[in-house]
Amino acid sequence: MIMAAMRNIRIDKVVVNIGTGKPGEPLDNAVTLIERLTGKKAVRTVSRIRNPTWGLRKGLPIGTKVTLRGKAAEIFLKKAFEAAGNNLRTSSFDGKGNFAFGVGEYIDFPGAKYDPKIGMLGFDVCVALKRPGYRVSKRKIGASVIGKKHIIQDAEAQEFVAKAFGVEMLGGLEAE
Question: In the beta sheet, which residues pair with residue 124?
Fold first, then answer.
C-alpha cells in the first residue's frame, strides 16, 4: 500500500498578495492589512517592467505578499474560502495542481474588522498542491521528471478541495 501514500494530495503553499500598483500610503496600508490577516511578515513586490502609461518603472514597489505553509496555510485557507462564499470556479484551476481565487473586500474575512485608515482592499489567494515525491524535480543534484500519472489533474485537485474544505465547485466564468 505504499503506492496509495504517494498519491495523497496536500497543500504545498498558500500565497496571499495585494497589488496596489503604486508605492506610498496605499502600499503601506496593504502591508499592514496582509500582516494583520496572516500574522506573518509581508514582503514587498516590485515592478519587473517599465510602463510610463501607468507610471511604472523597473524596481518600483507595487505590491505585497505573504507565503504560508503547513498548518497556518490550512487555517488561513479555510477562512479565505469562507470569505469567498465557499464557492470556487472550475476555471480557477491550472491543470497542474494549482488554483487561485480572490476576496473582494477584506471585511468578508472572518475576524477582520473595518479600519478607516486602510479603507477597502481585496486580496488574491494562490494555492499550490503537491504529492509526495515532487521534490525530485526541484532538487539540485539528480533532478528528474515527474511522471504523467503523478501530476495532479484538475478533477483530482477539485475533489481534494471539495472534500478537505467543503467548497462547492461552480462552472466556468459564467457561473458568477
Answer: 17, 102
Cβ proximity of 165 and 81 under 8 Å: yes
**Residue 175 counted as domain residue:** no
* pLDDT of res. 175: 46
Is 107 strand, coil or helix?
helix
Least confident of 46-50, 74-78, 96-100, 151-155: 46-50
Question: Which residues are 169's β-sheet partners?
Answer: 88
In this prediction the pTM is: 0.85
CA 142, CA 3: separation in Å to the nearest integer? 22
Helix (H, G, I), strand (E, B) or coil at 34: helix
CATH number of the domain that residue 40 is part of: 3.30.1440.10
Give the domain range for residue 6.
2-169
- Strand-strand pairing, 10-19 and 87-89: unpaired
